[in-house]
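User: Batch of two.

Assistant: Item 1 of 2:
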Amino acid sequence: MDKAKLLKIIEKAAKDKATKLDLSEKDIRELPPEIVQLTGLTSLDLGYNQLTSLPPEIGQLTGLTSLDLGGNQLTSLPPEIGQLTGLTELYLGGNQLKSLPPEIGQLTSLTSLDLGFNKLTSLPPEIGQLTGLTSLYLRSNQLTSLSPEIVQLTGLTSLDLGSNQLTSLPPEIGQLTGLTSFYIGDNPKLKQPPPEIVDKGTKAVLKYLRELNVGREKQYRAKLIFVGEGAVGKTCTKCSLQGEVFNENQETTHGIDIKVDDLEIDHPTEKNVNMILNTWDFGGQRLYRATQQLFFTRRSLYVVCWNARKDPVQCELDFWLKTIKSLAPDSPVILLATHIDERAPDINYHKFQKKYPQLIANCAVSNKKGTGIEELLEVIQKAAAGLPQMGEAWPTSWLKAKEEIGKLEGHHIKRQDYIKICEDSKVDEDSIWTLASWLHDLGNILFYYDSSGLEDMVILEPEWITKAISKVLEDKFTRDKKQGILENNRLPAIWKGYDRNLYPAFLRLMEKFDLSYRIHGKDSSVVAELLPFEPPKFKWHKISELPKSESQLTMNFELNFVPAGVMTWFIVRTHRFTQNRHWRDGVYLEYDGHRAKAELDAERRVFTLEVQGIMPHYFFSILKDSVDVILNRFSGLQIERNMPCICLENNKPAGRCEHNFEYTNLVDFVEKNIDQAQCTKSGNFIHVNKLLYGIHPYTDNAVIEAIKQLEGKIDRRHEQMADLIIRNFLRIHNHAFAKLEADCPSLLTISPRSKGPFKEKRLFTEVYNVQLWCQMPGCSHPIVDGDYELKQPKDWLIKAKPWLSALLESLKYVELAAAVTGGFITQTVKEAVKDKIKVMEKVVGLIPDSKKEISERDFSDDYLKAAKVSGADLRAVSSLLHSLDESHHWGGLEKTISPEGDILWLCPKHYKVFDPGLPVL
C-alpha cells in the first residue's frame, strides 16, 4: 500500500473517530507520523506488513489497549512504546527483535505479551515490572538464560519458552504458582530441569522446581553401558576397571547385569568431587536385543566392545553403533578392542568416527594382562565428567527417598511402601509419582503405577526381571517344540526358584515390553521372539487378482538400519487382529473383512505394510500408526515412507506401477495446495488427495463427501469411512488436550434438561445435561455415570462453539458407524442418542459466533491447526469439564494409550481390551 492511500485511511479513521483500525496484511513498509491523529483508537492491528521501524509518534496513542505488530520486520522498538500504559495486549511475534527497550517495563497494564519468533538473546530486568501479565509467549527466540526478575510475574498462567537455547531455569520459577500452561520443550541445551522431567509436562516441571526451592544437592551420577557381541569381554573389562582379578572362566551374562554405585572415580577438574557410575553389562546374544533396547537411555556413556581376534564385521560393530545412534544419538561412545594380548586390533577408526560422530575414543585392553585399563579409565573419567547430568541438582527430599530405596533388600516392594518412603523423606505429596516416573526412566526402579495388575509392585532391581524374562527367551522347548507358544504349565520349569505368585506379574511385564501376548481363551501366550522363521501358509491375493470391489494400500518403510525387535513389537502390538498366522519376520492380520500383511526384509532394510479390502484405509491407518509408534522409539533412525503409484489401479491385469511416491512429499504437497503429483514411469498426473485418501487427516473432507454420496446406503464401506472420521477426530482433539495438559475426555453430548421441544429463547437460560462417551474405536457409547449438570452456560457456549461444531460433526459419524457395528447397547439407547445429537445440532446452530478471530498465534501445534480450533477453545472446554467433575472421575472413564499411539478414554469394559490386567494362572 502506498503512502497516499494509507494517509487517506488514517484521515478517514480520524474523521470517523474510529476506536478500532485494521491495517494488517496491507504491505505497509513505513508507518507515517500522521498516525498520531488517531488518539481515540483502542485497537490497532498492523500485523503481517513490512515494517522495519516505528515512528516515535506511536507513543501518543495512549488510548490503545490492543496493539498488533506481529509478522513484520521490526529490529527494535522506540522508547516511546513505554508511553502506551493502557495496553493490555501487545503482539510482537514474528519480527527481528534482538532486544527490548527498558521502557517495556512501563506497560504495567499488560495481561498478554507475545514476543515469539524473534531473535531475543535476553530479557531486560524491567520485564519483572509487568506484574499484571497472565500470558507471556517467548517461543523460538535465542534466549540462553532468563532474567531472575521473571519470577516477579506472579500472575502468569501461561509461559511458553519453547525452542530457545536455554541451559537452565531458575528454580524460583517454581514460585509462579498460577502457571497452568508452561512449555520449555525444544531447548536442546537445557540441563536443568533434566529432560526426563521436562518430558512429563508442566506439572512435573513445576513440582521439581518447587522441591528444588526447598533444598537441593548436586549429584554426580551416570550410567556406563557395556554392549557388544557375546564373549567379547564386556564383563571382564567391567571387572578390570574395579581392580578385580581376571577370571578365565567368567560366566556369560544373561540379559543385563546391573551394578548400582559400581564404579567411583575422581572428577577430572572439580576438586574433592567423586563421580559414581552405575554399570550396565548387556548380554550379547541376539535373543536379548529387543528387551535390552528398552534400557538404552539418553545421557549415558556407552562402551562398544569387540574382540581383536576377530574383525569388526564379525563383531557386528555397525549394528551396535547404529543401535546407539538411533536410540541415544547424543550420547558419547567409546570403541574398545579386547584380547589385544592375542592379536593387535586392526580397524579403520577414522572411517568409523566419520560414520558415527558420537565416537569419542578408540581404546584397547587386555583384561588378562591388565594392559590399557588405566588408559581406558582416564577416557571414561573425562567422558563421564562431560555428561550433561554431572553436577545436576536434585531436590534434597528426592535424593533422600532414592537413597532409602537403594538401601532396601529384596527385589521388589509394594506401592504403599514406596509412598511411605517418600513421605518419610519429605517428598511433596504431588511429587511422589513424578519421582517414581523419573526413577523409572533412569533405570533405578521399574514401576508401572498406572497399569492394571502391576500398580502395586515396585521393582527395585530391573536386572532381576530382565533375567527372569531371559529364561523364557532361552527356553528351547517353547522355541523348537511349541513354535513360540509359551504354555502356562511350562512356567514352573522356566522360573524355577521364583515365587509362583509372581508368575502373572512376570507375564504382564513381558506384555508391557511388547515381547508376548496372551492367547484368548487359552492358558498360553505367543512369544514373538521365539516364532519360527518359516511363514505359515495363507492366501494373499495379488493386486491383479483382487475382486473389483476391493483395493490395496501399500507403504514401504525404508530404513537406514533395522533395529532389533521391530517385527517382534509389531506382532505383539497388533495382536488383537491376529489370525494366528505369524512368523519371525512377518504377520498376517484381519479386521472386519479386511486383510493385512506386514513383513520385514532385514537384508533390504524394508518394512512393508499391505492392506486389502473394500475400504482398506481405516485398517491401514491403524497399522501404519503402530509401525510409526515403534519406529519413533529410535530418535536417530532415518526413515523413508514410500507409497506405490496408483496410475495402473484401474488396469488390474497390468499389476502395480513401479514408481513410488515419498509419503512426506505428498503431505507437503497437500499443505502447499499442490493438487497433483507426476508418475515418473507413465508421465501421468495423480491426484495427491487420492494417494493420501483416508490415511491422513487432511483428506477427511474428501472422506466425508464420499460418505454423503452413500447416503441411505449403509454398508461396510460406509461404516469403515465413518470409523475413519471418528478416529481422526479423537486423535486430533485428545492429543491437542494432552498437549495443552488439559487431561480430560473429548467426546460428549450436550442437551437441555427440560423436556419438550427446545426453544431458541432458552438458549442461554437453559440448564444443560453434559454426558461423556466411551471412545472405544468402532464402539463409542454414552456413559451413564458421566452425566453432569451445566448451569449459566452463555460464556462457555460462545467460547466453545468452534470445538462444539467439530465435535458435532464427528458425533454424526459415531451414530452412523453404530448403525452397522452395533456399538450402542440397545435400540432404545441408540434412538435416545440419535435424538440428543439432533438437539445438540440445533443448540450449536443457535450459538452466535465469537467476535474473537482465530489467528495463527492461537495455534500451539499442528494438532490444533488440523482441528481448526484454537488453544483458547480447548482450554474453555477443559475448564468446564474440570469444574463439573472436580474429582476427575469422568464417569469411570480411564485414559489409555493405544498401541497406535492414540489417547483414548474408555469405560472399564473396553479399557481391558488394551490393559487386560494380570493373567489368571
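Item 2 of 2:
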Amino acid sequence: MSRQPRSALGVRASVRAYGLAVRLFPAGFRAQFGDELAEAFAEAARERYARHGLRGLARLWLETAADLTVHAGGPRLAAWRGRDPGLSLRDERRTARRARPVIRDVRGGAGMLETLRQDVRFAVRTLVKAPGFTAAVVATIALGVGATTAIFTVVNGIVLRPLPFPGSERVVMICETNPRTSWCGASPLNMADLARESRTLDSAGVGRGEPLIAQIGGESFGVRGGIASPGFFRVLRITPALGRLIEDRDMDRGANHVAVVSEAFWRSRLGADPSVIGRAITVDGQALTIIGVLPPDVFIPIYSGRDLWRPLTASIDNVDNRAWRGFVPLGRIKAGETVASATAELTALHEQLVQAYPEANKDWGLRLEGLRNHLIGPVSRTLWIFLGAVGFVLLIACANVASLLLVRATGRAREFAVRASLGAGRRRLVRQLLTESLVVSLLGGACGLALAVWATRAFVSLAPASIPRLGEVGIDGRVALFAFLLSTATAVLFGFAPARHASKTDLSGTLKGLRVAGGDARLRAAFVVVELALALVLLVGAGLLMRSFGSLLAWDPGFSPEGVTFSFMLPPRDVYPDGQAVGAMQRVRDEAATVPGVEGAAIASGGPLFPGGDGTYAMSIDDRPPMSPDEGPPVEYYNIDPYYFRTLGVKIVRGRDLSTADTFGAAPVAVVNESLVRRYFPNEDPLGHRVTVSDHSAEIVGVVADVAPFYPDQPVRPLIYWPTDQFRRGTGYLIVRARPGVGGIEKAVRARAAAVDPRIQLSAFVDLESAVGSNLVGPRFNMLLVGVFALVAVLLAAIGVYGVVAYSVASRTREIGVRVALGATPDGIVRQVVRGGLGLAAVGLVVGLAGAVALGRLIASLLYGLPSTDSLALAGAAAVFALVTLVACWVPARRAARVDPIVALRVE
C-alpha cells in the first residue's frame, strides 16, 4: 500500500479541520457557501504549504480564524439571513460573491492590500476636506524634512561617501612627527626607504606644490606646479588621459626633464592637441618633455588644481638633505593588511632609519592617518553638529505635527465614537489614523525633497571654500531614500501617539456631546514642552556663535590694514640663481614705491597675517642648548626687508629696526616680537643676545610690537625676523600700501615690474582687508546657519504654544463664560491664561538650559575666545524665549478676555 506524501496529508487534514470550523455557521448558510469556501481554502492551503511548509499552514490557520468570523462570516451570514426569498440561486450566489474577502485573504493577503487601498482612499478624501489643516501639516513636515535632508546631503557628499578614486579606504598619510610641528610631512628619502622595505604597503610616494614659470610661444606666465615621485600617482590609481605618468626611470639625473600636465592646462595652453606627447615646454628655463595628460576632474588630495607635475629635480638617491620634510606623503596599504599592522611595521622600519641617519631623523617619529580623515576631519565635526541642530528643527516640526494631529483627532471624537459603536475596533481606528499620518507625511516628504534640492544649492554656494569636496555634494539615491525613511518615521513615531489616544474614545460621553479633554491636553502640553526645550537649545547655540562672531569683528591687529595689498613675486630661477633673485625683487620694490599714491612697499617671505613662513623650530639662546618643547613653545621666523614694519605700521618698541646696512656679509642681526621676549627673556634685556634657529645665528637688535592673531582664542606666537639680504631666498611677497581711494595701483605696479624684467611673475594682488575678511566666512556661515535653524525652531515652538493655549481657550469657552458672568475681569482672565502658557515655558526653559549647556560643549570648537557657558548668551536666549512665549500666550488670552458669557453659554 503506497503512502501519501506529507504535503498531501497536511493539506488534507487542514481542509477537514476547516470543514469542521464551517459547521459553526447555520445549516442553510453552509449549504449555499460551504463548498465554495472549502475549495478556496484547499487551494490556499496547497499554495501555502508549497511555499512555507507547516509554518505556512499554521499561519494560514491564524489568519483564517480571524477572517472567517469578521470578513467572511459577518457579510455572508448577513447576506444569507437578509436574502430575498424571491431571488434565484444565481442571484444569491452573485450577492455572496460580492463579499468574498476570506478567499482573497487566504490566497496571499490580497484582502489586506484591499483594506490598505480603502484606508488610503479614505485618508485622501478626509485630508482634501480639510485643506487648511493638510497644508499646515504638509508645510511643517516639508520644512523639517527638507532642512534635514539638505544637511544630510552635505554630510553624505563630504563625510560618508568614499574619496573619488579606487580603494580610497586603504590610502593613508604616512606622517613623520615631531613635538615642534603639527605639519604632516615626510622626507622623500625616508619615504623611499620605507616603500622599498615595507611588506604591508602596496605603494607609497610624496608630492609637493611649487610655483613655476612656463614659456610657450614667447609668452611667459606663472603656473601652479608640483613635484612628485612615481608612487604618489600609483597610490591614487590615476590613469592618464594621454601618454603616461611619472615613472621610476624619470627620477635619474638627466632623465628627469619631463612633465605631466593637467587636462585644463592641455586645453587652455596647448590647444587640446592630441599629439602633444613628446612636445617640449620651457619651465623655469628648462625644456621639459610632455609625457602625459591627466584625466579631467582627477582627484589629487591637498594639491588639486595643479597645472603641471614634474619628477624630483634630482635622483632620489642623491638628494643631499634627508631632513627636508616639505612633502605630502601618501601610502596604500595592501589588501588583507590593516592600519594597525602597517603602523607597527613602518614604525619599526622608521626606528632603523633614525639609527642609520641620526642627524636628520633625531626626535622624529611616525604615525599613520587615513587620508579621508585627514582631509575631512577638521570639518566633519562641524557638519555633524549642523545635522544635529537641524535634527532639533525636525523634532520640533514633528512635535507640532503631532499636536495638530491630536487636535484634529480630538475634533473627530464624535466620528470615532460612531464608528466604534458600529463595530470598528481600536486597532482599526489606529490603523486608519496612521494611514492618514503616512499619506500626509509622504506628501510633506516629497515637498521636503524638492526643498532640499534648493537648500543644498544654497548651502554649497554660501559655504566657505575651505570645506573639502563641496563639488561632490548632490542629491542621489541614498539621499532620496533618507528623505523617504525620514518621512515614514515621522508618520509612525509622531502619528502613533495621537492615533492611539484618539482611539480611546469614551462612547457614552462623546455621543452625549460631552468634552473629555484631560488626556489629550496633557499630551499636547508635553509636545509643547519638548518644542520649547529644543528651540531654546538652538537659540543658545545661535547666541554663542553670534557672540563669538562679534569678538572676531572687534579684532585689532595693532595697525591699520586699510590700503595694504600684496602679491607673490616669482623671479625666473634660470635667470636669477641663488641670491640674485633678492636683488631683482628689491628693484621691483623700489619701482613700486615710486608709483603715485603708494605710501610704502616692502618684500617678505611671509608674516603673521600673510601666507607662507618656514614652519616652527626650536631655538637656542647664546651658548645654551636648544630648549625642549616642555620649556617653551617653538618659534617661527620670516625674512623681511627694512621697509616691512614701516609699510605695515607695526611699531618698534625697543632697539632698532632692520636697515639697508644689514646686508650679506655683515654681522647677522634679528628683530624679535614682544611675545618671544616675554617667554624667553622675562627679566632681562633681550638686546645683544644671540639666538640660533635652524642653524642660523643672529644678534637681537630690536623688539617689535606683537601682531594680534585673528582668532582671539589663539596665543601670539614667538617670532623672529631676519633681513632678506642675510637670509636669502628666491621668492617672496611684494607688499604695497596705498592711500585709500587711489585706483589703478595693481596695473601701475605690474608695469613697473615689467620694466625691471618682464620675466618676473606677479600673482594677482590681494587686498589685506579682504584676505582677513575671508577668515570671517566660516564663522559667519556657522552663525547664519544655526541662526536660521534657531529662528525656524522658535517660530515653530511659538506656533505650538499658541495652538495649545488657543485650543485650551476654545475648549474652556463655557467655563470662561461662567467666570465672566460671575464677575471675573478681562485682566484676570488674561493673567490666568498667560499663567498656564508660561508654566509650560518654565518647564521648557529648565530642560532647554540643561540641553544648552551640553550643546555648548559640543560647539566649543566653533567658538573663538568665548566660553561655552557664556552667561550673556544664555541670558539673551532666555529673554528671547520668554518674550516669544509671552506673545504666543497673550494673543489667545486676549481673545478669551473678550468672551461674551451669554453667547458662550448659549453655544454650549
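Residues 572-759 form one domain.
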